[in-house]
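Take a minute with the sequence and fold tokens given here and flag any structure token that looks odd. Thanks in advance.
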Amino acid sequence: MHDKQDESAQRLIEEFLTARATRKPSPHTLEAYRRDLRAVAALAAEEATPPLPLDALPVAALTARVMRAAFARYAAPRAAASVHRAWSTWNSFFSFLVADGVVAGNPMPAVGRPRAPLPQPKPLRGADTPEQLLASVARQEGRQRDPWPERDLAVLALALCAGLRLSELLALRVGSLTGRAGERRVDVAGKGGRPRVVPIEPELDGVLVGYLESRVRRFGSRTVRPDAPLLVDRQGEPLRRGGLQYLVESCYRRAGITDRVPRGARLHALRHTFATRLAEDGASAAEIMRLLGHASLASSQTYIEVTAGQQRAAVRSNRTNRALAGLVAAERDGRS
């Protein structure tokens, strides 16, 4: 085991990333792993005794003391969520090394980490914005080179009415739509390998049927076999991450609602809108958790808490409450 500890930390990082790639994370996720590992490793090389260049850093130098010092410097200019993500990545890296017999133990439990704040929901702003978006996309516009409103509407409706993530949308197959009329559902390959089933109401079912019929007209019936990707581009090829993001962005522009989309939550704003409306209509945290495929109840609870806060803010803005506040203040002044 000791001779293995002389191995290059950089090379072992690449081995770890290769092993992770077999789990099929998105390229974005894999690159985030690489950035976190290399950034902290560079700091660890500087904290080693004596300091070393990164390409000469052996894994044996990554002691608990060195990792604590490296993470302290890494954390200083960064948000708690970023530090927590990097800590988790390094914890996975050391677990990989332990399992591979490269190191005897994982030093990360001795390295402090901040509690990761739960992300706050970022739904579309405006009470009627989702309806305005859907109505706009359903209209065929002559300005588009090759309009396909049925496909665009299906994408938005799946996110707004079933709460699917970007990766989940891309993973859908035609055969993911199952069940007989009135009991339709979509089988979702969820995040972290957690499958779930989301019921489909007749309205969404009608949108999806219309989309598939339009697809047969464009490309023929062979393109709607059960194992075929559900969402395709205008050439009939499977939609990719960038293409799906561009499609949603263009729908926002055509509907004239770009100013109502929270920053950093373009497609995800549709999923957040779905969850927020569930909470507004009285769904419990457990129901939201099942429908959205959350790993913990705490994530689902944030939608209910935000909704409760919005309700209180609305009550607070009521003009009658403001008038009552004036009467109370006047009465207090009269007593003094």
